[in-house]
Amino acid sequence: MKCLGLILLVILSAVVACAQTTPTDSSGIEIVKFNWTKERLGWEGNPFNGPIENFEEVRARTRNEKRIEDAKRGNAADIDRIRREAKADAANIEAQHKNPQARYAFVYKTTVRNTTEKTITSIDWDYVFLDKANENELGRQQFTSDEKIAPGKTKELSVVASKPPTQTVSVTSLNTSERDSLIGRIVIVRLQFADGSVWQQPQ
Predict the structure, then answer these.
(1) CATH class of 25-41+103-200
(2) What is the pTM of this model?
(3) 122 pairs with which residues across the strands?
(4) I need a surface site. Which of 49, 90, 158, 187 has the fewest CB within 10 A?
């Protein structure tokens, strides 16, 4: 009797173990790694060691030079005022070049492995951001990557976007501590295969 009870206990334990290890994601995609970064756009400095003037700045400088030359030829009494105004314009342009308006973009990446037996041609994937304190969803970036991934192969998916992960992340400054309050997660939404078949995330 004890032996029978022991056998039943072993069988029950095996059933529970199988239930706990049943995969929850049926996409056939393994998420190897993922991350996001915020990057500053544009030149940090001029490779020609001098400020690059845009069209409006060139026009303003040329206009001021012409006003000074006209004043010299006409012996204008207000030549000193024109020179002061030209100098002020030049100083303003120089200040703008020293403190350019920063622009940023967000780079979202994930590396995936195709564990299916079919070649993937397109992946719809979401980069989900959760509050680290309570795991409430704070933001979701939705992407489609047209990438050919053969069975068993690994591919990095990368998207550059202007939209930040959440509304709490600044788009005008570079704050390295912004990610500390966030948890990231990759969700595979849809797969398109080379044979025309499709896998869709269950609702």
Answers:
(1) mainly beta
(2) 0.59
(3) 192
(4) 49
